[in-house]
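Progress report, Aim 2. The chain analyzed during this reporting quarter is listed below.
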Amino acid sequence: MSAIVAWFLSNPTVLVIGFGIIAAAGAWFKGRLSGAKAERLNQIAAEAKARDISDQVQNDVGSLPADAAREELSRWSKS
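Predicted structure tokens for the chain:
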């Protein structure tokens, strides 16, 4: 058994193939992590933009007089 392991560790072709597989796996793993990080950043930016729009709408509705707000909201209600 140790002779087989010694042969694998001393054979340059086997070592190059092994290191190539390890390098490819490492690159794939790093790409997955960086892609996930980029997606999280995109979602954070989209949520911040939606929150800003929501705040703007809330401010606009809050500045309306009560009668105008009721009239505006009645257009959107289903009943």
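The chain has a mean pLDDT of 87. Residues 2-76 form one domain. These observations will guide the mutagenesis work planned for the next reporting period.
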